[in-house]
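Amino Acid Chain and Its Fold in Token Form
===========================================
Purpose: to set a sequence beside its fold so the mapping can be learned.
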Amino acid sequence: MSTNRPSVEVAWFAALCDDDYEFLGVADEDLQSSWLHCSDIVRRAESNGFDNVLLPSGYSLGIDATAFAAAIATLTNEISLLLAVRLGELVVPQLARQIATLQQVSNSRLVVNAISSEMPGEQLSSEARYRRTTEYLFALGELLDGRSVNLEGEFLQLHIDPPRISGQGYGCPPIYFGGLSEAARDCAAASADVYLMWPDTTAKIASIVLDLTQRAQRHGRPMSFGWRSHVIVRETEREAREAARRLLSRLDPVTGEAIRAKSLDSTSTGVNRQSELRSSSDDEGYIEPNLWTGVGRARSGAGIAIVGDPDQVLAKLTELSDAGVSAFILSGYPHLKECDLFAKYVLPKINHGPLSLAHTPATLD
């Protein structure tokens, strides 16, 4: 991806959800999610020149993302903070105040990864959950943009003025959002600024980009696209493939299944698609050159890694950029080590910078 190509955003992953290993599925106390370990990852990502960092959120796993974001914002200066918020667990007016406050603390470096979650123990159909998320994102954006909300929705009944802090001029930050089902795509088209995709074949990614672009256009909204995957880069392809094998070398299949089952999204359409890709891979777990499904053996969600030498990793990112992806959220095991390797071998070859986006107000049908 030469420097004369269009700029893309390159982000790293803060592993707040107990998702850092040297050997996948083998617990390591030194890599367990904690303020010290995860703050080290974020500061390393900033010093290495990454544009953004995902702060993931889980109910039973790891540490709280919002509290972490408030603290790490005071220790960083340039890197954007992509805060994952589980909308089903939050009250919209409170979330609006939290986000506006974090924008003030971080000097407008916050962006939001909206997750269409349920409350732990709650069971909603996928369609209902995404309809609720559409209402929540509409109300959240209105409050953060300083507008009153008078909504008698299917799930949200809200008649409220915006909080004072939303008048400080920050507005609603860009919304990143992912989900593969029909209901999720409809929600994204009405609400999101960046549609996040888990790894798939490039042909499949291009078809999703086309579909979501058309859906967003029907709402009069633009749409950008992001790719969320792992990466294993070494000086040679042989070394990278060996690193991938080493990562899985101590994984007990029963442990891997238990790790996947812990996630609250373990039965989603997107997770099922990652399982399908694993099933269709070759004997070493590759679905196409340099795209390896092995991570998904002990991880729900994004379970595929780009594996190869620097030129091969760069070529895959370039291929995806040509298919419409303008934001990459990458991670690797262990996260500090792989952050350094990617920054050494690949990042200097990429024309990159934070996405230049403003939030487009969500729509309600």
